[in-house]
């Protein structure tokens, strides 16, 4: 179970949220209190825990954690990542572009040595069907041509948007984020910002998908993908 935007430090988590449903968690918290942070809960003991992807600027913001599960026969990683939002203005949008410029090559390099699934809030809606009001959002952060092109280029390397592999035409039911303003949730004026991006062999084992909307406890809805690694 991958989580993003913890807004907590390790001492805040210890003894309260460090284990959920008997699943121990590993975390990468931001240096700034009350900001960002990511984590992964798993019943499986990882062979290694990687916090950060080698960017001093963004590793300080707690945006990447990777658990590695290596055996003599295979190397597989689960990644939880929280991509920056640029919605607060030009300064943060510039930071978002720097993040994408650094993250893309890192993930492409990682693929040369292991299978992986990246789960996270990417703060990018890729195509028109990924948000309700696409016409009016073409200049807004999360749906700019540059961000969409980054996703297109990344997937062109062979990576797979697993939800879209399973649900290629889903629209309203695909949304995972709603603004807290107005009646966005009530009217399902949403965006698909949360993804599973997987290497092709791993993506081929995906069998089920579900966006949990029965209860709202965040501005995001959890995205669950079922994988059958015996395939």
Q: Describe it for me?
A:
- This protein has 6 helices and 14 strands.
- It is α+β, with helices and mostly antiparallel strands and 231 residues long.
- It has a single domain (2-227), classed as Endonuclease/exonuclease/phosphatase (Deoxyribonuclease I, Chain A), CATH 3.60.10.10.
- The strands form 4 sheets. It has a 6-stranded mixed beta sheet with strand order 5-6-7-8-12-9. A 4-stranded antiparallel beta sheet has the order 1-4-3-2, with no helix packed on it.
- Strand 6 (64-70) and strand 7 form a beta hairpin.
- Helix 3 runs parallel beside helix 4.
- It is globular and about 50 Å long.
- The protein starts with a strand and ends with a strand.
- The mean pLDDT is 96.
State the major sheet: 6 strands, mixed
Secondary-structure element order, as H and E?
Answer: EHEEEEHEEHEHEHEEEHEE
Give the neighbour order of strands across the main sheet: 5-6-7-8-12-9
Number of continuous helical runs: 6
Q: Kindly state the mean pLDDT as a whole number? A: 96
Rough outline: globular
- Class in CATH? Alpha Beta
Distance between the amino and carboxyl termini: 21 Å
CATH topology: Deoxyribonuclease I, Chain A
Low-confidence regions? none
Return Rg in Å.
17 Å
